[in-house]
Amino acid sequence: MRKLLVPVGLALLLAVANVIPVTASEGSKRVTIDVHGAFDSPTGTFTARGPICGSGITSDVVIITSRGSRLFFDDRKTFTCADGSGTFTFHVLASVRPCDPIDHGTWTVVGGTGRYRELRGAGKDIGRYFPGDSCNADGIDDTFTGVMGS
């Protein structure tokens, strides 16, 4: 299970998760990013299709809170491109019921370096825990879909 860092305001977390727009603007292109992350490693790996680099590594700063029968993840996920073109960071808000095999969330671009300094975008995230469910998982495979552009 991901490490619990500090509590956050769940009302704000829920409000933001429901209002992030996923609309294409001029110059935006569809993107799909597949991330593989093991919970015992500080980094993960990614492959991507769209207006960004094709692969690289990820790192996360995650705050986990719980309310009732749900866990909520507030994550700053940084993608570092293997081709040296730069980095970009997502703010990911996701939730899961304990022991479910899948979590759901939203993401928005909140920063970048190099070629990605002006990057904008938003979309949805589906995370599939492996080898089983979120209670006994060794990691998670996330698929981020949406739109990105400058």
Topology of this structure?
Blueprint lengths: L9 H8 L11 E10 L4 E7 L5 E13 L2 E12 L5 E10 L5 E11 L7 E11 L8 E11 L1
Antiparallel strand pairs: 1-2, 1-8, 2-3, 3-4, 4-5, 5-6, 6-7, 7-8
Number of strands: 8
Q: CATH topology, which one?
A: AOC barrel-like
What's the overall average pLDDT, rounded?
Answer: 87
CATH second-level architecture: Beta Barrel
Describe the protein in words.
- With 150 residues, this protein is mainly beta.
- Strands 1-2-3-4-5-6-7-8 form an 8-stranded antiparallel β-barrel.
- Mean pLDDT is 87; it is low at 1-24.
- The chain has one domain (10-15, 30-149): Beta Barrel (AOC barrel-like).
- The longest helix has 8 residues, at 10-17.
- The chain is globular.
- 5% of the residues lie in helices and 57% in strands.
- It is built from 1 helix and 8 strands.
- A hairpin with a 7-residue loop joins strand 6 (102-112) and strand 7 (120-130).
Write a brief caption for the model.
The protein has about 150 residues and is mainly beta.
Task: List descriptors.
150 residues; AOC barrel-like; eight-stranded antiparallel barrel; 1 helix; 57% strand; globular; disordered N terminus
